[in-house]
Amino acid sequence: MLKVNQLTKTYDKIKAVDNISFHVKDGEIAVLLGPNGAGKSTTIKSIAGLLRYDGDIIINDMPNKSIEAKRIFGYVPEAPAVFDMLTIEEHIKYIASAYKMKNYKAKAKTLLEAFDLWDKKDKLGTSLSKGMKQKVSICCALLFEPRVILFDEPMIGLDPKAIKTLKDAFLKLRNSGCTILISTHIIDSVEEVWDRALIMKDGKIVLSRTREELANNNESLEDIFFHVTEGSL
Ligand SMILES: Nc1ncnc2c1ncn2[C@@H]1O[C@H](COP(=O)(O)OP(=O)(O)OP(=O)(O)O)[C@@H](O)[C@H]1O
Which UniProt keywords apply (predicted)? Predict the structure, then answer.
């Protein structure tokens, strides 16, 4: 469960996120949509504990910056941060050690195979393409089976097979009861998987809808996105 209460983040004079509140339940996939500059990444980075902000962020009843919360949440940043001088396999070992995982090898092999990285596991971070770095970042976040996971623009740079593998991973995470928040401005990329859509504009959440609510009104995600962000609602 993820709870964001009255989150505000100001950079110098710019209010990037303006008093937003939302919840994402266990086993729910929420998508944070919005045009460029709406405040999506700032929201995700605040939840990940990387920024100072006003408001409260609670992960499974614990403050997001507590060690206990950090043990159970995963974060895939917008720009993958891999270590130049570690191989893919060493990244996996590093995460397994940080999260004190004992039996991680079979899970790691399954993940690396699914993302076509198994045969590249001895390659150094510095020699990986942008998409490969993104896949390493995703595998590291999935390895320790987080209870809450944040993805910031996860599809950027991925090939079609990796996009399909990632969508399958979203569904498996949901089935396991994980809380999932995905930020994107590419609506098509999440169309098949979302349960709750949060649309941001100018730092505010201007619309929150469940898939069921949209279906009952015969609306599509794309329709409401343009209505809300182009100001015709
Ligand atoms: N480090 C920073 N310093 C100053 N202003 C920032 C900083 N990061 C973001 N901003 C500003 O905060 C606002 C929200 O930016 P943010 O990156 O959160 O938006 P976004 O919705 O993720 O956009 P995009 O879809 O383009 O990635 C924008 O006006 C942006 O210029």
Answer: ATP-binding, Nucleotide-binding, Transport
